[in-house]
Amino acid sequence: MELAEQIAAYTPWNEQEARDKALLLSFLERGQDIYTRDNAAAHLTASAWVVSPDRQQVLMIYHNIYRSWSWMGGHADGDQDLLRVAQKEVMEESGLKELKLLSPEIFSLEILTVDGHVKRGSYVSSHLHLNVTYLFEADPEQPIAIKPDENSDVSWIPVTQLPEKVSEPWFLEWIYSKLCEKVTKSGF
């Protein structure tokens, strides 16, 4: 199933997802290339929400650019299989070798603002990440490792400690809290 069909079939969890779903579909319908960063204003990304088997911890990285504990994910960079992108990014950014997909379906949708920043010596203008999130599980006993060009720490964080760790209030309120609630209420 193509991404536009997957997003069209997705049932939004809340108003944020309903509005972001409509906007994501409009981007896809315009026929612009949003699968690559050639579209500097808005492009597709995939994220992963990685939970422990008991659902009490989330695997997060300390992101160098955002200077906050963050989920893992990255740019589609031309790959139209966003599930594959999300899984690849988790393994690259955390060093995990084993990752269990809890559902092949989209777990969450969001449009994220990215402030202008310097990456690899070049300025990147402010833009939008048209993001699709997938849900994974991993064993906290597995070895993990940082990816120095992107993060300076990787850790399993108890869900109850997210408010203390995450320094991006909007992400905490609108994204991470929603993802925790969805895990709990969806029975994953």
In brief, what are we looking at here?
The protein has helices spanning 3-9, 15-29, 82-94, 162-165, 169-186, and strands spanning 42-51, 57-63, 68-70, 72-75, 100-101, 108-114, 117-119, 122-124, 127-137, 151-158.
Could you tell me the number of beta strands?
A: 10
Question: What CATH architecture would you give?
Answer: Alpha-Beta Complex
Termini separation: 23 Å
Cα-based radius of gyration, to the nearest Å: 16 Å
How many domain modules? 1
User: Could you please say which CATH topology applies here?
Assistant: Nucleoside Triphosphate Pyrophosphohydrolase
Question: Any overview of this molecule?
Answer:
With 188 residues, the protein is an alpha+beta fold. It has a single domain (3-186), classed as Nucleoside Triphosphate Pyrophosphohydrolase. 30% of the residues lie in helices and 31% in strands. The chain has helices at 3-9, 15-29, 82-94, 162-165, 169-186; strands at 42-51, 57-63, 68-70, 72-75, 100-101, 108-114, 117-119, 122-124, 127-137, 151-158. Strands 1, 4, 5, 6 and 9 form a five-stranded mixed beta sheet that branches. Strands 3-2-10 form a three-stranded antiparallel beta sheet, with no helix packed on it. Strands 7-8 form a two-stranded antiparallel sheet. The radius of gyration is 16 Å and the shape is globular. The two termini are 23 Å apart.
